[in-house]
Amino acid sequence: MVEDIAAALAAHGLLLRGGFNFAGGEETPSGLSGAAARSVLLVGQAGAAPWPHFLRWREGRSQTIADPLDTWSREVIGAVAETFGARAASPSDTPYLPFQQWAMQAEGLKPSPLGILMHPQYGLWHAYRGALLFEDEIAFGETREVVHLCDACVDKPCLKSCPVDAYSADGFAHGTCLAHVRGHNGAPCRTGGCLDRNACPYGAAYRYPPEVQAFHMTAFAGL
Q1: Of 18, 69, 128, 182, which has fewest CB within 10 angstroms of its CB?
Q2: Residues 50-97: pLDDT tens digits?
Q3: What value, to the nearest 5°, has the Cα angle with vertex 66 and ends 129 and 88?
Q4: pLDDT number for residue 89
Q5: How far apart are CA 17 and CA 45, in angstroms?
Q6: Is the peptide bond before 29 cis (omega within 30 degrees of 0)?
Q7: pLDDT of 147-176, one tens digit each?
Q8: Origin, by domain of life (predicted)?
Q9: Residue 223 in this model has a pLDDT that exceeds 80
């Protein structure tokens, strides 16, 4: 079944990003019928692979759709969930589900200084678009221990490239970043993406193209 799900997602440029069975007695979200889910498969992307599929989908729809990428993700992942008897969940669902914690458990990843999980192959150029919740357990192999690339990075260029020092040991200064991106001097960030994120040397082959980064920055800034 897992292989079939992976193939169905791959047709849209999406990936299965691992999964796990919930521990006995753990409070879990509900599955398709409303009973407690017993396993979860995470759905995401590496690089900008879904972008052409998303653009084709968007061509036939109103350009005023709010959160179009989220809408597309829900539609695609929802259809796959329906086919395989799962409940689809999105990172934007409320109450929010612990997607980052799930990802860390499923793939053995750790956060970078920017908060984005660092992947040993994709670097910072990956994302999670949804999850499939099943009411039965799935046979998973053991999660491999992965190298956390940030541990070997001495210079930390990801903390030295932002002109307003939005990222620091104190966390992310959301308001400072937002004001800069919206302001006169924020054009490089709006058109080419976060300078701190782009400064990371890892996973460069998966770096989002400028138009994809501009799309995300426009959404972030509410422009």
Answers
A1: 182
A2: 999 999 999 978 777 889 999 999 999 999 999 999 999 999 999 999
A3: 30
A4: 97
A5: 8
A6: no
A7: 999 999 999 999 999 999 999 878 899 999
A8: Bacteria
A9: no
Helix (H) or strand (E) holding 82: helix 68-84
Residue 142 has pLDDT above 80, yes or no: no
Contact 94, 23 (CB under 8 A): no
Q: What is the DSSP letter of 204?
A: G
- Whether 125 shows a pLDDT value over 80: the answer reads yes
Q: What are phi and psi of 16, to 5 degrees?
A: -80, 130
Instruction: Name the pTM for this structure.
Output: 0.93
Backbone angles phi, psi at 168, to 5 degrees: -155, -175
- To 5 degrees, how large is the angle CA 154–CA 204–CA 10? 130
**168, β-bridge pairs:** 171
- Dihedral (Cα; 124, 126, 131, 132), 10-degree rounding: -130
For residues 8 and 80, is the Cβ–Cβ distance under 8 A?
yes
Q: Which amino acid is at 41?
A: L
Is 171 buried (19+), middle (13-18) or exposed (0-12) by CB count in 10 A? exposed
- State the Cα–Cα distance between residues 107 and 189, nearest whole angstrom: 30
Place of tokens 């999850």: 131
Parallel, antiparallel or unpaired: strands 87-89 and 110-111:
unpaired
Query: What is the CA angle 40-41-46, rounded to 5?
Result: 145
**β-pair partners for 15:** 44
